[in-house]
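Entry 12.
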Amino acid sequence: MKAALLLCLALPLLGQKKMAVTIDDLPWVGQNVPAAEAAAGTRGLLRVLKQAGVPAIGFANGNKIYGREDTAAWSAVLRLWIDAGFDLGNHTYSHQDLNKLTEDEYRRDVIEGERPWREWMARDRPRSRIFFRHPFTHTGGSAEKRTAFEAFLASRGYSVAPFTIENADYLFESIRARLEAKGDRDKAKEVEAAYLAHTAAMTGYFEQLSTSYFGRDIAQILLIHTNELNHRNLAAVLDALRRRGYRFVSLDEALRDPAYKTEDRFVGQFGPSWVHRWSIALGKKMDMRNEPDPPRWVLDLDKELRSAR
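Predicted 3D structure (tokens):
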């Protein structure tokens, strides 16, 4: 009786951790992938998200639609997200690096990248702001460039989409695809298992780091990509996160967490998690040396496969 009472008292505390899922590089990642294959993978991803009750947001690159001969087919792939009730954000037209282009060049890429949003989101589900995700999460290599670009984004009604957790899915997918192309499906399965383990390691690391900064669990924002790896493994990723106590929320809701009011003062040539970025404003030492790397054997396998090309 006493044990049952304690369990009932504990139940409201379960699932209180929040996470938003953000998915980059829509409509699909992969060279020479037919639109029909991308559509099948997209339907699979969307089915998993729907079944898990995840209000994800996808960030699209316009050149993956309008820069192809089969524009209609690729438009239909992206339209699947809208028809399934998910939001879209802008990831620029051609996924260029802010650190490598002039401000004018990059602004043009952002404006051109608005086309998918204007054609579908603005018409079907208008909202007061658009989310922007920086390619490579590079926010500007100098303070001047970053400040000017942020002012430009604000002038066009954008809010920046940060992230706190990423899992190098692009690396694991690249290795998996090359192994399967060679017919080595057993090793590809090992890579997929390593991906799930690395996702757990990264989640645990950023939970611990953010808790050390704020003294509590904060709403986390996961960054992943539209690819075959996640088509096959997203259900397992989401199940593992739910077992860690996460409830999936929209990006809007995650950003209501007071942690996201912490100033991001980071300026640099790379794109770390916002948890690392906040360390500057919080007076902490930014130290990414303890952030988990993918397993050494996975990194070695990547090098081996690259050298064998």
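Annotation: The first strand starts at residue 17 and ends at 26. Residues 184 and 227 are 19 Å apart (CA to CA).
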